[in-house]
Amino acid sequence: VPMVAPGNVQVHVINSTLAKVHWDPVPLKTVRGHLQGYKVYYWKVQSLSRRSRRHVEKKILTFRGNKTFGMLPGLEPYSSYKLNVRVVNGKGEGPASPDKVFKTPEGVPSSPSFLKITNPTLDSLTLEWGLPTHPNGILTSYILKFQPINNTHELGPLVEIRIPANESTLILKNLNYSTRYKFYFNAQTSVGSGSQITEEAVTIMDE
């Protein structure tokens, strides 16, 4: 098997899900056989928004021939990763380069995990929601938009409310009685808005 590890491994983080890695080629005489390519082993150490450590699943990408760089796609935003590089010949892999740590920046969050609308009265509705399953960063706020829908399914004026990120319930007041409302709800990080979740609910007709 090859004798030495690739040197001077560098990682350039391009965005929250993509990084480029490059390395110096090993001297050909240390390959001790036919140079087949280089393998990059990489794995997520932890999410920076949650301190939980799961089972670490190592991923491997193979770059054929004498390439000295490669792209690592499909990374998770706002996470800490490690990687190393090994050279491969027909017999197997050489030793791993020292582990290199890199971090991906924040991305936009997934949609809130749920949106429940309860306690209808003549002029109010209570909203409850759950955190996004993948915050992909530090949540800065939630955005709630809502509008009335009349019997012919025409949409009325849209109202938008920004809600602090640490809230999980809201009582909406001053609504019209016996009216159906449509709600659009999403979370935000400093990067932008995540995908939205929608719900409908009706205020009651009379006490």
From TrEMBL:
InterPro entries: FN3_dom, FN3_sf, Ig-like_fold, Neural/epithelial_adhesion. Residues 5-107, 111-207 form the Fibronectin type-III domain. GO terms for cellular component: neuron projection. It holds the Pfam family fn3. It comes from the Eukaryota. The keyword 4Fe-4S does not apply. Keywords: Disulfide bond, Immunoglobulin domain, Repeat. This is NRCAM protein. The gene is Nrcam_0.
